[in-house]
Write a structure and sequence with these properties.
The structure is a homodimer. Chain A is of the alpha/beta class. Chain A is built from 10 helices and 17 strands. In chain A, strand 7, helix 7 and strand 8 form a beta-alpha-beta unit. At the A-B interface, helix 3, helix 4, helix 5 and strand 10 of A face helix 3, helix 4, helix 5 and strand 10 of B.
Chain lengths: 406, 406
Amino acid sequence: MHTDKGTIETGPNLLDGVSLPAAAVFEPALAHNLAWMQAFADAHGARFAPHGKTTMTPALFKRQLEAGAWGITLATAPQCRAAFAHGIRRLLMANQLIGEPNMAIIAELIAQGGEVYCVVDSAANVEHLGRYFAARGLRLRVLIELGVAGGRCGCRDLEQVLALAEGIHRQPALALAGLEGYEGVVSVDGSEPAAAIRAYGRRMVEAAQALEEAGLIEAETALITASGSAWYDLIAKVFHEASLGARFVPVLRPGCYVVHDHGLYREAQIGVLKRQPTLKQGLLPALEVFAQVQSLPEPGLAVVAMGKRDIGADRMPEPLRRYREGGPGAPALSVAGWEVVKLMDQHAFVRLPADADADGSDGDEVRIGDIVAFGASHPCLTFDKWRRVCRVDAALNVIEDMPTCF
Amino acid sequence: MHTDKGTIETGPNLLDGVSLPAAAVFEPALAHNLAWMQAFADAHGARFAPHGKTTMTPALFKRQLEAGAWGITLATAPQCRAAFAHGIRRLLMANQLIGEPNMAIIAELIAQGGEVYCVVDSAANVEHLGRYFAARGLRLRVLIELGVAGGRCGCRDLEQVLALAEGIHRQPALALAGLEGYEGVVSVDGSEPAAAIRAYGRRMVEAAQALEEAGLIEAETALITASGSAWYDLIAKVFHEASLGARFVPVLRPGCYVVHDHGLYREAQIGVLKRQPTLKQGLLPALEVFAQVQSLPEPGLAVVAMGKRDIGADRMPEPLRRYREGGPGAPALSVAGWEVVKLMDQHAFVRLPADADADGSDGDEVRIGDIVAFGASHPCLTFDKWRRVCRVDAALNVIEDMPTCF
């Protein structure tokens, strides 16, 4: 017996037999995005290791590898274990590996043949990892993280990077495999955000070259890796145009691209397409949450059975379309002027335009049970609300029930 | 193989073998809260049906029933199914039952012997439910929801309540089992919030009496139910002191009390204890998230491996204590002056007081790998981040690995 919310064991179509609310990934947009970003990485001479933390959906990891990805990026040791359990063998943990129970998880994956990279930015962590993996006769690939002042993790300057590299060389159980960064934490408050991102990319290139010149890079092919889903085009270009020689291979890591979004990343994409005019069509939003009107308690207000436990709340969800329940195949109705004004744990308050709830002669007045499709900003915080997400075609037929492994 | 985050299969103690971050429920505070709220309900002549949506943790439902609860309240049909699958037979769905796939879930529970109540506030929904359950030869218990103007769901006045009751009587498959409300959506912006809550409780009592006088209550013992975790004392008192006769039994439904919190509900409790001076000790916070310092990249900043995917973010989490890793039994270290200033998906930015990261002679300087216990506001949005939560004793020994069923 399924006991999670939104199980879809009974429904051939989102509008027929599926317990709502439910999260849906649209196949046409998904297929487009998978091919689009892989082609982008290929065109920039980069390997692609999409960030899997966005979806934690093994069925999507598989699609990403089939589309040409080199590996999957993850944020934590348990996430790496979950991906490995579903067949992913090359794992880039773009984070520090802290705590012996987490080290034990990664050690087990390496012992089973996993090619695992993780990130370091402190001598203390390097010593701990060196001791831990040496005691088990294993070798861990590490990337030095280069951060920015006022940012998140990472060495703050080249001097720290070189000192850490020497510390890594004193640990036989660690292999220095390259350099890692994340431009998403660069402050872009100024008038030239793109310039700040490019400057960070160039600092990464300089640090990579300094490591190479100092003879500190051990791997035959070292990695230089950065990029989230907002500025990946600038990072890709800086890495592509740099004189990195044969030793450094760029690895790009955006994750949200796979389903894109209806908020933050839709806006970021406007910047990408403006900066890169050769890119014709961009990414398409592929993730929606379907939920039903449960109450129309007073004029101008619809309460929808969907809350913070069902959809990301970094911004208010955006009503996209509406359907009558029980009527697959019927045309979508308008939600023009509908606005989510409040989100509780299990409820959304939707302000309706005048007359939306009047019993008009055009027959599209809102009714109890109406099914509303919502878009959200920041897909990571919608995926993690679900134990299963359904993949649907353009007609809302359910193609696949995709478990997540958060 | 476990593939979720925070699995705790290897650790006898939170500081020894448990992959962090992890969420922990402290047994002493849990036991106190379970007994405290049950005694409170008993003392007010009320049945207790704690809201299970807070934790969705069957092991905690079991504890609530063992402590004397009459049933478990839930918010959705899949939540009811999950609770039923773990042995809960009396389910109060404090929400409208919308959508035939959700009706099918509830029908199945009733067919299997479940005693299920749900809430109605519209003629359209009453007709749909009546038709659906009649076609299956089943009978559904419904409670009429009384709301407030500008609030969430629910009838807005007594006239609507009575009209809806008559509509329910026209549906042989529905049994009108009482009245439901939620005082948490009453506007308390004014200078007399308690007065507004009391007035709402009295409106509920009046509506119940009106239903009774009109001969519209069918059940031998009807329910009058309200109360979240902030104003339950006022609701309990109004119901207790009302002349409800033998027909109406009050049912209280707070859910967050079971682990209480370090924010919103801690503050709400100050009000409860002030209003009810006979209550000596109040509820105790029982839920914490343990996570490790992963980076100390610049003076005054610690980056902790815990983010919006691990802990509720309605407010910033509160650092409570700190431990050295690998040292169960060692005394906790101070986090005085530590402040979470930013939360990303998988990272917390903690601002440290001056000298917290200096290599001082007192030996309590912050180190990479230090384990920090955090408290949060609003436990519902911390529980739903986890597939398993561990129950620990005061010495952080893991007593039980408790799966959640979100």
